[in-house]
Structure formats: structure tokens, C-alpha cells
Fold:
Amino acid sequence: MSNLIHWEPPREVMSLRELMDRMLEEPFTRSVNASGMLGAPAIDMYQTDEEIVVKAGLPGVKPDEISVSVTGDVLTIRGEASEEKSTKASTYHLRERRCGSFSRTLPLPTVVVADKGKADFENGILTLTLPKAEELKPKTITVKAR
Structure:
């Protein structure tokens, strides 16, 4: 005699929903750059009255492997994270740290003077300080009473 399996549509729909949730959640929990490489650098950007400050997390990247360029109002950070040499005796159970080249291009909120920009690299954090163009800095006009 054959075994009958009772079909439960709500359970089937729930497993499909869980699958869709996982599928939609994963791309948002991992950063992917335009080339599809996982681990594009995380960026913080803010501005003051005088400058734009950009901070990029680049753990495992050497300062001489980083390239920064500004073209108009577009900032591009490129680099390469070297892969550690593994021994033949090791077996990875999980490997999420990125290696290989990366590129991140961002629009800047205002025009900057790239020639006067500074780039500091400390503890895996690249900090770019880009002064705003003079004509875009806020000007104060003093009001005189008569």
C-alpha cells in the first residue's frame, strides 16, 4: 500500500514566502559594487561649511594600493585587497573577507577643489578631506544700520 501525504497549502505558501524573504534580504545585507564583487567599501560622507569629508572602510588594503580621483563632482576610490596565501593543510569553513580589486564611484554634493584635498589612511580607514570651491562657501554679509 502506498503512503499518502496530506497536502497543506498554508505550509507550502509559508515556505515559499520564507524563500522569497531570504532572496530579497540577502542583496541588501551585503554590499555589491558595479562589477559584482562582494565587499565594496562602506562609505560615510558629510559636509561642513568649508569641506566635504569622506571616510571609507578599507581593512586589509595597503595605502599604496589605493587610488583616489575627482572628476567634476564625481569621486572614485579604487584599490586592491591582496589575498592571504593559504596553506594546503587548511580547510576553510567560512571565507567572507574580500580580496581582489574594487572600485566605488560617488557623486559629491558640491564642487570641490581636488588639488587641495588631503587623504589620510589610519587603521584601515581612508579619510578624504576635500575643500569646497570658494564660490560655493557660505558668505556672511554684515548689516549696517543708519
Observations:
- The chain has one helix and seven strands.
